[in-house]
From TrEMBL:
Encoding gene, per UniProt annotation: LOC108631681
Keyword set, alphabetical order: Membrane, Receptor, Transmembrane, Transmembrane helix
Transmembrane segments: 7-29, 35-54, 66-87, 99-125
Entry GO CC: endosome; membrane
GO BP terms in the entry: late endosome to vacuole transport via multivesicular body sorting pathway
Cell compartments where the protein resides: Membrane
Family the UniProt entry places it in: Belongs to the OB-RGRP/VPS55 family.
Protein name from the UniProt record: Leptin receptor gene-related protein isoform X1
Pfam family, one: Vps55
Keyword field contains Transmembrane: yes
Amino acid sequence: MGFNKQTALVLLAFGGSIGMTFVILGCALPAYKVWWPFFVVLFYVLAPVPTIIARRHTSEHGGSNPCLELAVFITMGFVISSFALPIVLARSPASHPLIQWGACYLTLAGNIIVYLTLVGFFLAFDQEEFEYSSW
């Protein structure tokens, strides 16, 4: 059973909004009231950029593509950083942690949902099916 593009877009928008809701809850709930975990949104924006740029400049020979491999490496750095940031903020000195563990868990849950949504976007709307160079 295949999804058409409109259904996939609605499901991806729903997934992204659920993930962002978890991140916002981790920041705005009255028990937490700290907006430091919201910095992971910067990683959400930056994570797909290297892969998008590398796909635009790839060549079609056999073997490995160093440009794409570097882009995947940088992308994984952003992904790991978005998971590490809330953990580091929660593990800051015990006398005064920057965020509570509940906020950390909500942010990590939001990370998982948002990155699954990004993977779903790349699977549903693969950039290679369009020929940009045919102009």
